[in-house]
Amino acid sequence: EVQLVESGGGLVQAGGSLRLSCAASGFTFDDDAIGWFRQAPGKEREGVSCIRRTDSNTYYADSVKGRFTISSDNAKNTVYLQMNSLKPEDTAVYYCVASPFCVIGPITGDFGSWGQGTQVTVSS
Q: Counting Cβ atoms within 10 Å, is residue 1 exposed (0-12), middle (13-18) or buried (19+)?
């Protein structure tokens, strides 16, 4: 059973940076993708970035391209999300998600295995 623990969230001013970490364990063979989703109050969940374990291909939502970078340290079983040039619109709870494949963009249903989330708040 997959266990995902996010950390690194916090309060930052617009234009600042944060680095989120996702410590993963208990992968199954189906868990090829580790992605970052976010959800703001009253909004749907949105996949913002994803990395595939098999080939290290990365994917980004248009809203974060050029600002966010996803990476992985396989020796540590950890995935990171470096977030630069943060905007108030980035304020949300960020979740690490393990799934068979990468999904980017809004979703309305259940998808994959989720961590507990870490709060990111960007002040204007």
A: exposed
4-16 pLDDT, tens per residue? 999 999 999 999 9
Average pLDDT (104-110) is 89
Exposed e or buried b for every residue in 57-96, given b needs 16+ CB within 10 A?
Answer: eebbbeebeebbbbebeeeeebbbbebeebeeebbbbbbb
Residue 19 confidence (pLDDT) above 90: yes
**How does residue 109 score in pLDDT terms, banded at 50, 70 and 90?**
confident
- Could you tell me where the beta strands, DSSP code E, fall in the chain? 3-7, 10-13, 18-25, 33-39, 45-52, 58-60, 68-73, 78-83, 92-99, 105-107, 113-114, 118-123
2, 27 Cβ separation under 8 angstroms: yes
